[in-house]
Amino acid sequence: MKPKLSSKNAIALACAAGVLTMTGAAFAAVPLYQLFCQVTGFDGTVRRADAAPTEMLDQLVTVRFDTNVRNLPMTFRAEQVTQKVRIGETGLAYFDVTNTSDQPIQARAGYNVVPERTGQYFQKLQCFCFDDQTIAAGETRKFPVQYFVAPEMASDAETRGVQEITLSYTFYPVSDDETPATTGAG
Fold first, then answer.
1. Cα–Cα distances in Å, from 170 out to 112, 113, 186?
2. What is the pLDDT of residue 185?
């Protein structure tokens, strides 16, 4: 005969299972949320694309480039403030990063677009974002971003008529407990 679980033991077992489940969900939340945002364009998150569209529209969109640095001794700037691209056309922008300290820096860039509703249509073919970058003391690096605005944006009722999109990057330090994913331009 199997011994029966007392109600106190059953409650303790259920609580332990709940704590383990919640702990696992907490660790999985950030990568799952990031994946969700990249797939759907939610919250202004730019999507990655494998190929540029074959259709190009006559409608022009101005893409503004915004650069920010959080708690790092570096300068970060776009080589161009704006670009005008046709919807469906591939654009290429360059960003310069200079480590102004006498020590190497490990940093990572995150990105977003405004207005947020255009995030699903602003897609990147090549980007340095989310890859850890090691920048030597005093080094200046040039990072390219190849992108396009998907033609579907022109027929979406919420984004039709949008004439300006801001692509904003922020470089932030990679914490000591994180292992760099790559070094160099991604």
1. 9, 12, 16
2. 36
Assigned superfamily of 44-173: Ctag/Cox11 (2.60.370.10)
- Read off the amino acid at residue 23: T
Q: How far is the first Cα of the chain from the last one, in angstroms, to the nearest whole number?
A: 62
- Domain layout of the chain by residue ranges: 1-40, 44-173
Structure tokens at 86: 């046709």
What is the Cα–Cα distance from 90 to 56, expressed in whole angstroms? Answer: 9
Residues 6+ apart with CB under 8 A from 160: 153, 154
Residue 56: enclosing H or E segment and its boundaries?
none
Please give the residue that has the higher pLDDT: either 167 or 24: 167
> What is the tens place of the pLDDT at every residue in 95-141?
999 999 999 999 999 999 999 999 999 999 988 887 899 999 999 99
Look at residue 5 and tell me whether its pLDDT is greater than 90: no
What's the number of CA atoms in the CB half-sphere (13 Å) around residue 160?
A: 3
